[in-house]
Each structure stands twice: as C-alpha cells, then as structure tokens.
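[step 3/7] fold_predict: job queued, chain A
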Amino acid sequence: MGRKGVFSCIAALFGLLLAGTAQAADELGKGTATGLPLPRFASLKSDRVNLREGPSKDHRTTWIFQRAGLPVEITAEFEIWRRIRDSEGTEGWVLHSLLSGRRTALVSPWARNEAQPIFAKAAEESGLAAQLQSGVLATIKRCDGNWCRLTGEGYDGWIRQDRLWGAYPGEKID
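[step 4/7] structure written:
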C-alpha cells in the first residue's frame, strides 16, 4: 500500500473514531452538537414547525406543529438538527433554530378533561389560586423538585411537578 493509501486508511479510521465518539456522547447523555444533557426539554419558537423523518430538509415532513411555546423533549442531536418528542410520543427532526430554551409545560395532558389545582404557594394548605384544565400550556417560572410555579393568562401559582409534561421528576429549574 502506498503513502496515499495509508493516509486514506488513517482518515477512514479517524472518521470512525469521531463517529464512535459522537455515539458515545449521545449514550452518555450529552448532545454531540451542544454538549448539553440528553434528553432535555425545550419549547417551539414558532407557530409553524415542520417535523421531519430525518435530519435534513431532504427528508419528508411528517407533521407540522402550529403552537409556539409547545414543550418538546430533545432526544438526540445531529449537527443543526434536533430529534424531538412531543407529549403524545410523536418523534421527528427539527432545525435547532426553531427551538427555544424557554421552559414551558402542559398541564397533565394524559388526564383528559380533568382540572388540576394551582395553589398560592408550594403547599396544598396554601389555598387554591386557580384550576387549570388538562392540556393548558403554561410558562414554568421555577421548580423545586416537587412543585413548579406556573404563569399564564390569568393565573400565577404552584402545581405538583408530577402533574406536568415539560419538567422531569425531581428536576430543579430556576
């Protein structure tokens, strides 16, 4: 094998090593493009976000989200693309520029047509501040691992963290 062949083999091995490093980063719970934890929650920036089969504009659009602020879970990264999952389990790829780090949540989307209590403080004895229907979109102001303070049109209060889709159990958000 000549010099050119040796360099080609080294380049190929280096490419495999980098691909393995990227895969290892994903398996360790870190994004290969950002180094941020995987999975993690984000929200949609726009009222129109195309969900694609794969990480490029050449891939078919499988769904169009039409609700800015909707919380999504980022499960993988590939260059400028993020694989996301919504509260119903739908998965696909979106451009990173269509996502925001602003934390939002859906109030118990699994409990159809059930109102959830929002309290004045992070304790049930603090008094009822509001009742929110399942599926209501809220902004997360903070979470202490058990309770989250939510705000939205006409309400500001605390809800048990396990009644939200958009914050992990025990996760603290400031």
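[step 5/7] annotate
The CA atoms of residues 42 and 163 lie 18 Å apart.
Residues 1-28 form one domain.
exit 0
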